[in-house]
Amino acid sequence: MQKVEEFIEAVKNYRNGFHPVVSFNAEADKLLPLDFTENNKELNDVVVNDTELFSKYITGKLEQARATYGIGGYNEHRTVYSRSAVFDTGEEPRRLHLGVDIWGPACTAVYAPLEGTVHSFAFNDAFGDYGATLILQHEVDGIIFHALYGHLSLHSIADKQEGQTVEKGEWIAAFGEPAENGNWPPHLHFQIILNMQGMKGDYPGVCKFSERDQYLQNCPDGDLLLQLNQYATAQS
Length: 236
Description:
single chain, 236 residues, Glucose Permease (Domain IIA), eight-stranded mixed sheet, 6 helices, globular
């Protein structure tokens, strides 16, 4: 079996052992799936290119649906990345999203899904980038993997040290404001990475569509750990 298949099998066996990454009560809270592809005609260039308008759009959608969080984005081909030169790489821009986004208020608490260590962290401050970023290293059934948390508050990485132990369920971060999260509406980008390929404090969260297969092999669906999409309900 390929490593990604081994990882998926190991995670399934550990399914009931993960701590929630964000506080969520399945009986009381609602999750709203959000679409950032070309199919969403509400997200025109005027909204996408203005962080304040973009934030109001997200907040309005959540309030209208009475949802605690918005969620989605894994393996999604997104037009919204046209807002930043960070994703315009030569003839083929990067548009395929590799993580799961959880949209909600700034300062929303983020917790470690299981024990691990701090792999690395950084402030990726370019417009449209991750902003404050934390990467943890974990192990399940002998398989080492990494979890990237992007668009955090600067406070989230202020006291971190590489190799620092993280306990399961420990507060590790919070959603950042646009000024510290890469100029995005507040949200968490959660991404599983099997092989960091020598990188620290950063790893592509968006790839070229032509490189889709190789990146998805290294970045399986974050919802394997989050286990949230099962509760997502479209707005009626």
